[in-house]
Prior knowledge:
Chain A is an alpha/beta fold. In chain A, 25% of the residues lie in helices and 16% in strands.
Amino acid sequence: MTRFDFNDASVVVIIGSGAGGGTLANELCQKGFKVVLLEAGKRQSPATFRNDEWFAFNQLAWLDKRTTSGNWQIAKDFPNLPAWTCKTVGGTTVHWAGASLRFQEHEFKAKTTYSNVTGANLLDWPLTLAELEPFYAKAEFKMGVTRTNDIPGLPGNNNFKVMYNGATRAGYKTVHTGRMAINSRPRDDRSSCWQLGFCFQGCKSGAKWSTLYTEIPKAEATGKLDLRPQSRALQIQHDKQGKATGVLYADKEGKHVLQKARIVCVAGNSIESARLLLNSSSSTFPQGLANSSGQVGKNYMRHTTGSVYATFAKPVYMNRGTVMAGIVADESELNLKRGFAGGFEFETISLGLPFAAAFLKPGAWGRDYARLLDQYPNMAGMWIVGEDMPQETNAVTLHPTEKDEWGLPIPNVHYDDHPNDLAMRNYAYKRGADIYNAVGATQIVAVPPYPSTHNMGTCRMSENPRDGVCNKWGQTHDIKNLFISDGSQFTTSAGENPTLTIVTLAIRQADHIANESSKKNL
Amino acid sequence: MKRREFLQKGVIVVAGAAVAVSGVAVVGNAAEWTAGLKTLNPHEGQTLLKITRQIFPHDRLDDSDYIKVVQDLDAEGATVPATAKVLHDGVANLDRSTSSKFVTMSDDDQIAALKNIEDSQFFQKVHSTELVSLYNNHEVWKKLGYQGASYPIGGYLHHGFNDLNWLPEPPASASPKPA
C-alpha cells in the first residue's frame, strides 16, 4: 500500500472518493501524479454489500445530522435527512442506479434559453456541449455505458414492460432500457448484470460502475494512490499568498492530521463541499474559501423529482431486476409550450417493501395505506428527474448553534420549490398517471420527493468570478490550486442524472491540471 | 443517526436498541407473550398490540407479526428510560382521554382516538418503530409478497425478472434479449 508523508507537499489531496473524486484520483495517478484520497467513510466491497434496504442504508448512507428549512416537503417529512448520499469509499457511486445521459446543448445555456424566469438565478455554463463531447465519449467508454461504444442495451424487466406499454400507448416515442453504466455483457473485468434488484444497496455482481471497484483499484495499481478511508476533512489551509497548502482532517482514531498538498480538490458532494469551504474561513478569507463572489453554498439544486407508482390487477414484481430499467425521454426535449422551463425524464424505479412503506406516503397510516402496501407485488413505479431552477436563497449554510463531533457547525439545507419546479412536477405527475392508466392501473400514487441523491450547484462554474465559485475547469476563481471536482460545480442542473457529467468533468479537469502543471502554472 | 430516527419528525432520538427482528419467540397465548415483556405491563402490551394493528392493519398478517413490534418497543424501553416513559404515559393518556379503555373500544373509536394523538411523541414513536419493525420482518415479507434478497439465487436474471406476460413484449430495439 502506497503511503505518502504528511509533510510531502508534492501530493494532490482529493477530498471524497465518489464519481468526481474517485475518477479524478485515477486520472491523475495514470498521469503520474501522487494522490492522497481522503474519504470520510469505510471501505466496503461487493462481498460486504447486502441485499437488505435498512442494513445497506446504515452501512452506506451519510447519516451525520443535518437540518433543513424552506417550503420543500423534505423539511417536513425528513427534517434531518435532506440528502440520500453515501459515506463510503466510492461515495454515492455505490448507491446510484447507473443512468448515464449527456446534458443537451441548450441546457448549458439555461439563462439564454429560458430567458428571464422570475426568481431564478440562472446563468449560462462557461462551456459548451461541443467542448465536453470528447470527454463525454471518454466517460462513456470508461463506465461502459449501454447504447454507446457498441454496448447493447440491458434487457427490460417487468417494471419496464409496464412503462413501455403504457408510455407508447400514451403517445411517447422514445422509450427504451436507457443508457446505463451497468454491464449488459462482461466488460472491464466485471460481470454482466444479474438483475439483482438492489442497485441502491451496492451492486453485489459488480456489473454497475462504481469508483469503488473500477477507478480506485486502477489508481492503486499505479502505486501513486494513498487512499485514506475514515478520514474526515475538517479544514483546507492556505498560506499568506492565499494558496492552498494542505488539508486538516480527523483520522479514524479521531486524531487531527495535517496533510500538506500542492493542489487540493474538493469532491465531497454539494452539501459537504460547500460546508468545508465555509468552515475553512480565515482572517484572509473571512467568508470562507473561494467565496469572494458570496456564491459558496448558494444556488443549491436537487432536481425536480417525485415518483408515480401504480397498482394493477395482475402481478408486476417491480423489485426484480435493475432499479432504473427504462426511460421515457420525450419530455426531456426543449419545449417551452408546457408552461415551464426545462425538461425531465421518466425513469423506472422500484423500492423493496421496507422502503416502499417508508417512502410511498411518509407519515401515512391506517387502512388505506395498508391496502396500498397489500398490493406490493402488483405495483410498478417510475421516477421523475427534471431540471430545477437555481435560486440564490436555496442554500447550504452553517448552522448557527449546532456542532458536529469535531466542533464544527453542521450544515442547514434550505430549499423552496420554485413555481417552475412545481409546474413541472404537477405536469409530470399527470403524464405519469396517463402512462399507467393506459395499461389499466387500479390506483395511482403520486409520491413526493425522496431525500435528494442529486445535489448540485453550491460551488458553481461561471465565466465571471462575480457570479460563481469556479471557472470552466472547476478551478476556483480565487485560489488557483483549489479545485471543485463534484456536482457542486454545475452551473445549472439540466434535466439528466448528474453522474456522467461529473465523471466527464473530472476527466477533463485532470487534463487541465496536467497541462497547467507542465506549464508551471500550478 | 440510526435507521428509525430520520423517520421521526422533528427530533432526533438516540435509540440504543437494534430492532427489526426480535429474538424472542412469539407464542399465541396472550398471557404467555405479555409475561415476557421487560418494561411494559400486560395491559400496556395488549394496548400496543391493538394500536400497532390499527396503524398498519393488514388482514393477511397475524397477531404474532404485530407482537414483534411491541416486543421491539419493549426492548428499547428496557434500555432507554425515555422511551419507557413515553410508552407508559402514552397508554395511560390514551385510556384516560376516552370513556373506556382503548382495548375495549370499537375499531372506529380506536381509529378516532389515534387520529387525535397522531402528532404526539407517543404515536410518532410507535409509528416510526413499527414502520421499520413490521416491514423488515421476513415473515411479513412472505405474507405481503416481497421476495427480499436475490443474491442467494444469483439474482432474478433466471428467476422471473421479465416474466410479466399480461402485456405485449417490447421490441428488441427497446429491450434487447439477455446476453
